[in-house]
Design brief:
Layout lengths: L2 E8 L4 H4 L5 H21 L3 E7 L13 E10 L9 E2 L3 H13 L5 E8 L1 H10 L7 E6 L9 H17 L5 E7 L19 H9 L7 H13 L8 H12 L3 H6 L2 H8 L6 H10 L4 E10 L4 E9 L11 H6 L1
Parallel strand pairs: 1-7, 2-6, 2-7, 3-5
Antiparallel strand pairs: 1-9, 3-4, 3-6, 8-9
């Protein structure tokens, strides 16, 4: 049977690709930490990565917005934010087994044999699997278009992932990666906005990518909306509280968080912590260690990396010295 051997939860930000130097020493330490996670996953012998992230209105729009989507065939990156248009190798047997296990356990994935993913997934590929040597099972969670799946439902999905992996009849080592968060506010208008300057984008958000007449111009406008932000609000206190709950495995509290609470405290971009709940549901027995956290307003995001290690009998949870000092 397959075995879960590791997990990594990590933030992503377009500014890492467009202006990595802006974050200075803090940004360099984040990038170095992701390099360490890559080496750690390789040393652990990960045969497959299950990659949980979200879409930023590139593949899914209000004309068709699934809560959970799994890729069971081909997978390609959009190449947004200067990332490669990766042709991502998909472990199709495991993906299909997860799909069927979900159906048998009240998780009804949307599924696709031709999945396209944006920087939510491909930035994690860029840092952790850039040579594409490890096949991937891509899963997308709706964190952008309310109403969102509940945090509790995301946690339940993680529990089903664990069940699917451990019941898969293959001698493979599987690592889980959740990409997104923590606190950040994204300059995307609310769908109910009446502002004239928002209406062209809202039309696309409601009706889908086919409504874009000039794709290059549209993408350039979207990029300008983000890159024009030299700095952005970050809720450091909220981020540290979230990481404390993750570190202490206070799953009950996190499962009760509402989307409204998350948006108020962490911003619309902070809804990406739904991706983390999927990972937490699958790795309940694992030991979390905060390998990195810094509020990086230059990247408009509270940036974190959390490492999840297999429990060792009799060993107390190791504490992240860096995190404790920075607290």
């Amino acid at each position: 049977m397959a075995e879960i051997i590791a997990g990594v939860a990590m933030s992503h930000s377009p500014m890492i690709m467009t202006n990595p130097e802006s974050a200075g020493e803090k940004g360099q330490r984040f990038i170095q930490t992701t390099a360490e996670m890559k080496k750690w996953l390789e040393a652990a012998g990960a045969d497959i990565l299950i990659l949980v992230s979200d879409d930023h209105f590139n593949s899914y729009f209000y004309d068709h917005m699934p809560s959970f989507t799994i890729g069971i065939g081909e997978c390609e990156g959009w190449g947004d934010w200067r990332l490669p248009k990766y042709k991502i190798p998909v472990q199709q047997d495991l993906a299909k087994h997860i799909l069927h296990t979900g159906l048998e356990n009240n998780i009804d994935f949307a599924f696709t044999m031709s999945m396209k993913v944006d920087h939510g997934h491909t930035q994690a590929i860029y840092f952790l699997n850039s040579e594409l040597e490890i096949p991937v099972v891509p899963i997308a969670v709706n964190t952008a278009a309310p109403p969102l799946p509940t945090m509790d439902r995301c946690f339940q999905l993680g529990e089903v992932l664990q069940k699917a992996i451990e019941s898969w009849d293959a001698d493979k080592k599987v690592a889980l990666v959740a990409s997104g968060g923590i606190s950040h506010w994204v300059p995307i208008p609310k769908i109910e906005s009446q502002k004239p300057e928002d209406q062209q984008l809202i039309h696309v958000l409601k009706n889908g990518r086919q409504e874009i007449d000039q794709l290059d111009e549209y993408l350039k406008t979207r990029e300008t909306r983000v890159t024009s932000l030299v700095t952005g609000p970050v809720n450091e206190e909220g981020d540290r509280e979230f990481l404390r709950l993750v570190k202490e495995k206070d799953f009950d509290s996190l499962r009760k968080w509402t989307s409204e609470y998350i948006e108020e405290k962490f911003g619309n971009g902070g809804q990406e912590i739904h991706n983390w709940l999927v990972l937490l549901g699958a790795l309940q027995s694992f030991t979390p260690d905060v390998a990195f956290y810094e509020p990086i307003p230059e990247w408009v995001t509270g940036m974190a990396v959390v490492q999840f290690s297999q429990p060792v009998k009799g060993e107390n949870d190791k504490k992240s010295t860096e995190f404790e000092v920075s607290m």
